[in-house]
Amino acid sequence: MLGLMQQWPLLCHKIIDFAARQHGHREIVSRSVEGPVVRTTYAALHKRARQVAQRLERDGFVAGDRIATLAWNSARHMECWYGAMGMGGVYHTLNPRLFPHQIAWIMNDAEDKLIFVDLTFMPLIEKIAPGVPSLKKIVVLTDAAHMPETALPNVVPYEEWIAEADGDFVWREFEENTAAGMCYTSGTTGEPKGVVYSHRSNVLHAMMAAMPDAMGISSRDVVLPVVPMFHANAWGLAQSAPMVGAKMVMPGGKMDGASIYELLETEKVTFSAAVPTIWLMLLQYLEETGKELPHLTRVVIGGSACPRVITQKFRENYGVEVIHAWGMTEMSPLGSLCSLKPEVQDLSGDALFDIKQKQGFAPFGVEMKVTDDENGERPWDGKTFGRLKVRGPAVARSYYRGAGAEQFDEDGWFDTGDVAHIDANGYMQITDRAKDVIKSGGEWISTIELENVAVGHPEVAEAAAIGLPHPKWDERPLLVVVRKPDKTVGKEEILSYMEGKVAKWWLPDDVVFVDEIPHTAAGKILKTKLREQFKDHHLPTA
Ligand code: AMP
Asked: What pLDDT was estimated at residue 442?
């Protein structure tokens, strides 16, 4: 027997229809690339998105075409997303922090037909476009007055281009599993892999993200997504904020402490989301200037592990709650968020921060388990760690063109490549990347935990742990350390500092000092390069 309820396909443009109808006057404030802070509303954005859709069709673009964006967070960028999706196109965000040859590779793999590009990235697209034969048009997100000189063909200014359409456009009808967007993972090994979101997965993800124990946003919030739309969909905020009718504040390309503070203060932002680096810059700015955060109540922090000191300072000095979150491009991207269940909400002091240090629990729509190498499920005891696997309606079931098939199993679980444990209350904590975890005598050593303990030493600026081959134990840890300026801490001091803070057999077999640790475009430690650099290092215990 089938249910007799209506078929109402979950399509992304219904989100912007809703925002325009129910919250039409709500503002979207953007720091423009041209300079000034500009303001629009959901009603205006809705109209301009339809102008984009109309103009795309008039130029001959059709459903299924990949429409790339190389742009900061702004209302214009959102219009392009909704306009592309509403005519059946597929928005494709590109990360400008990658090397030009990587971006060109990704654009060719996706066969992008048109690109919306911010003024900032004109020099970049000039390098890339000649090597992307599928590209038919370049729309620069500015007006004719600000157009730069360029030798590239088929380049037009956005404002004049959409002005030729009146916005009298009816969204195209299609099935909810139709592709809506694309984003490539910037893996540290191999070629990047394409993730293809559907309308249905985006809508469900946006609902899941907005729930009270997830981001918990409402029409009374003012939301500042610092996390870029090109990094895992701005964690869904370009969809969940209009879905709840929250005012939005878009930072454009300026993400230093002073610029972010200015927006937080003048726009009375209540909720924000970004990677730890951004918050370190903001906290430093606050400490230098003595300024306060009277409006901000919550920040979501993820992308890499959130240092305890950030959570502590926000709470104790500024009354702001940090919600630690974990996710991946492949998960749209949210996988878990650390809000407080009744079981832990009355904790205080270190016990509370121990919980808030975890990456949190999976919301409805994400199933999670940890397994050993043979796919045997490990207990939720808060200490036994294993491979973290997930499934759900906003989790990838395959990469574009079938790449990376080994990460998906026949039961529909996706192997995240992360290593984690889950406690009895369901709180998950990442302990490593699977390819970085150190396997010593059949047991696993968490490199993240070694690094976290090591950076607690007052003279250590940054630390990275890698496994080196060992004749007896298979692998043993080497700790690579960058000292703070003018500091002289040595190996023995670091090892005795770490003693008692990690299991004895986890202590590194050796400590080396370097001026710099290599990082990826996303700011993560480049362990492959470190392993290469130290492959001939002789451990004193070997
Ligand atoms: P990306 O797809 O570029 O967002 O990268 C996803 C990866 O970032 C995850 O698989 C994790 O390894 C890492 N990651 C994301 N959030 C966190 C977090 N809160 N703590 C530790 N690692 C994280």
From this structure: 82
User: Last residue of a domain, which of 206, 235, 254?
Assistant: 254
Q: Is 304 exposed, middle or buried (0-12, 13-18, 19+ CB in 10 A)?
A: middle
Nearest to 505 by CA among 421, 418, 420, 440: 440
> Which residue, of 210, 236, 254, is where some domain finishes?
254
| pLDDT 10s digits, 278-306 | 998 999 999 999 999 999 999 999 998 89
Same domain, 202 and 69: yes
What are the strands of the beta sheet with 367-371, ordered from one edge?
367-371, 386-391, 414-422, 428-433
- Looking at the fold, whether 423 and 468 belong to one and the same domain comes out as no
Taking the CA of residue 433 as reference, the ligand 1 atom at the shortest distance is 12
Cβ atoms 248, 236 nearer than 8 A: no
* CATH number of residue 70's parent domain: 3.40.50.12780
CA of 303 to the centre of ligand 1 (A): 4
CA of 522 to the centre of ligand 1 (A): 10
Does the residue 454 lie in any domain?
yes
What is the CA(387)–ligand 1 centre distance, in A? 14
- Please give the residue range of the domain that contains residue 223: 13-254
Indicate whether 400 and 454 sit together in one domain.
no
CA–CA separation, 132 vs 109, rounded Å?
10
The enclosing H or E element of 124 equals helix 122-128
Q: What is the CATH number of the domain that holds 443?
A: 3.30.300.30
Six-digit token string for 535: 């492959």
User: Is the whole model's pTM more than 0.90, yes or no?
Assistant: yes
Q: Which residues pair with 419 in a beta bridge?
A: 387, 432
Cα–ligand 1 centroid distance for 335 (angstroms): 10
The three state secondary structure string of 314-328 is HHHHHCCEEEEEEEC
Q: Which of 418, 429, 448 to mutate to test the pocket of ligand 1 (most atoms within 8 A of CB)?
A: 418
CB 303 less than 6 A from any atom of ligand 1? yes
Query: Is 494 found in the same domain as 447?
Result: yes
Q: Hey, which residues are catalytic here?
A: 185, 330, 439, 444
Q: How many domains does the chain have?
A: 3
Task: Specify if 400 maps to a domain.
Answer: yes
Per DSSP, 29 falls in state E
Kindly give the number of the ligand 1 atom that is closest to the alpha carbon of 430: 21
- pLDDT averaged over the chain? 95
Tell me the residue length of the chain.
542
For residue 174, being part of any structural domain is answered with yes
368 occurs within a structural domain: yes
Q: How does pLDDT run across 344-385, given as a tens digit for each residue?
A: 999 999 999 999 999 999 999 999 999 998 999 999 999 999
200 lies in the same domain as 246: yes
For residues 32 and 162, membership in a common domain is answered with: yes
Are residues 449 and 424 located together in one domain of the fold?
A: no
For residues 122 and 168, membership in a common domain is answered with: yes
Beta bridge partners of 93: 69, 183
Distance, in Å, from the CA atom of 254 to the CA atom of 451, rounded to the nearest integer, reads 30
- The C-alpha atoms of residue 95 and residue 183 are separated, in whole angstroms, by 9
Measured distance CA(422)–CA(355) in Å, rounded: 12
